Amino acid sequence: MERFALTCFREIARKGSFTRASEALGRSQPAVSAQIKKLEDELGGPLFDRGRATLVLTDMGRRLLPGAQRILEEFEALEREVAERDGQPRGRVTIAAGLSAIENLLPEVLRRFQARYPLVQISLLNRSGEGIQEALVNGQADLGIGWLLRERPRIVSEAISTLRFFFAAREGGGSAADSPGTFPAGPILAFERGIEIRDYAEKWLGPFEASLELPSAQALVRFAEGGFGTALVPVIEGMPMPKDLVWTDLSGTIPPLPVELYALEGSALSSGTRLFADFIRESSGGST
User: Fold this and answer.
1) Which terminal residue of the chain, N or C, has fewer Cβ atoms less than 10 Å from its own Cβ?
2) Cβ atoms of residues 262 and 132 within 8 Å
3) Sign of CA dihedral 118, 22, 40, 52
């Protein structure tokens, strides 16, 4: 058995699709299919049941997968050991996160991480809560960062920071009492209804109409600074809070949320992924 054939097999099993596996591997679908055909000829039977709407492993495929994963992980560990012989960790880490985390939590964390580990490459995927889970399960991401993942099959998580809610407005733009259903006078700026974090806020504040619905915490802050109204802003611990705005803490009304680090249960994390997970725990004071 050739290593690349096993790699193709593992990737198809992860993605559930020849097409998605081909894209992840950067090879044409016929080239990947040829590798699977070669494996099936060697083993004497099919590895995937292609007659169903969803691609699934056959009994032979299920028996092969644990051994293929073990062999490939040993290859990858050996490559890392050789590549890191100069003492410099290498590799790539893909992180799926929501826009607020990408804009407000990760820039400073990644700046310091890259200063410490310059040869570890970081890729970011902008995903909603459901999208984070899907990216982890499908092997598109190594780690996820977010909040409010309602259903978590196969996902392990740990708190790395805290998210609190504030009203933010220009001086003289009104203030809000810290009680359910109480809003400042004038226009309200908020996330779109249907976004998890808006739904969470309305659970405690009650339903409200927003004059502007915006896609990120930074956009809410910018429009509040522009005098468009009072913004309901989710603030990740450490996020800059401009001094030209009046900030009303709503923690007594809307319970703070944990910002969480997610990984796929039982997945073999690369050395670069482990380094990043340890680094963000260290940076935030989070713990396993």
Assistant:
1) C
2) yes
3) positive
- Tell me if the domain spanning 3-83 has CATH number 1.20.120.1760: no
For the chain, helix (H) and strand (E) counts, in that order, are 10, 11
Task: Name the band, by pLDDT with cuts 50, 70 and 90, for residue 178.
Answer: very low
Q: Is the pLDDT of residue 15 over 90?
A: no
* CATH class in words for 91-160+258-284: alpha beta
Q: Which amino acid is at 218?
A: Q
- Residue 87's pLDDT band, with cuts at 50, 70 and 90, is low
**92-121 pLDDT, tens per residue?**
899 999 888 998 889 999 999 999 999 888
- Alpha carbon distance 34, 141 (integer Å): 26
Do 91-160+258-284 and 3-83 fall under one CATH topology? no
In this structure, the number of other CB atoms found within 10 A of the CB of residue 273 comes to 21
Q: Is the Cβ–Cβ distance between 188 and 232 less than 8 Å?
A: yes
Q: Has domain 163-255 been given CATH number 3.30.450.20?
A: no
- What is the reported pTM? 0.68
Q: Where are the domains of the chain?
A: 3-83, 91-160+258-284, 163-255
What is the chain's mean pLDDT, rounded?
Answer: 86
